[in-house]
Write a structure and sequence with these properties.
Elements: H1 14-35, H2 41-63, H3 109-122, H4 125-128, H5 134-138, H6 142-150, H7 152-155, E1 165-181, E2 184-197, E3 212-224, E4 227-238, H8 242-246
Antiparallel strand pairs: 1-2, 2-3, 3-4
Helix pairs in contact: 1-2
Biased composition (Polar residues): 274-285
Region (Disordered): 254-285
Transmembrane segments: 44-63
Amino acid sequence: MQYDIDNHPDLKDAAWIRAANRRAKREIRRQRRQARLRRHGGKIVSGIALLVIGGVLSGFYLAGRFDQVSLPDVKLPPTGVNVEVPFASTPAEQWPEGEKGIVVPDANPAYEQVRQALIASRMDPAMLNEHKPDRFLAMLAPEVREHVAKNLPGWTTRLKQGTKLLPGGIRVSGKMTLGEKDGYPAVTADYVFAYAFEPPEPKKLLDQMEMVAAVREQVTYAITPEGLWPSDSKGFQYSISCTAAREGFLAPQFVEPPKPDQGLPGDRRRYFSTDGQMPTENTCE
């Protein structure tokens, strides 16, 4: 005897239906645990599991093999980030590494002085890890050192204690232009520094940007006989820990729980570019 699917006798068997529902719910819970997804990932996996399970059960309904139901493994989206190629799929992927990213336009010694100041303030391990500004401060004119020393977060990059960069974890892109200020040659440097941090649990992250933080700095250095005199400084940070930033340090997103809709709208590449104006949005609002 043949049955219409709506009138199949097993579909009217309450005990079978309860058992099938329990099996489906167990499978959904198992897939949720395996996914380890944050934010809305659990909802996505649950939807996939429900679709697959529903399709399998429908096939067995039609074939009349209800007592042979065996739920398949559901292929889940891959999780984790690439720590071997930390800037993969980010706007900084093709940028030069470290000091190689600061290229002087010509042999003018003013450019090289500013280049060394950028290295000392944004890439020197003593500054990044030990928070020692001595090398950078020594390059400045004595009259301005105290002011800069009291406002280091605005002029330097210091990593939050407990974090560290991956090998080759700094990429740089930007430009320098030569002008004049107060009668002295002056170099305006506009650069973005991207820092890739080592995550304690890479498989729990979903996006490379969770471990990559970006700092843009636009600053003019007047070249005086006493040393460099920085002025007209503007900056912006993107993809960061807001808690660390408020404390004056740099850390990636993964060090604190994500907030709903955290981040800035639009194309993330513009936050890595020095071609446009300095962004004015607050990345931590």
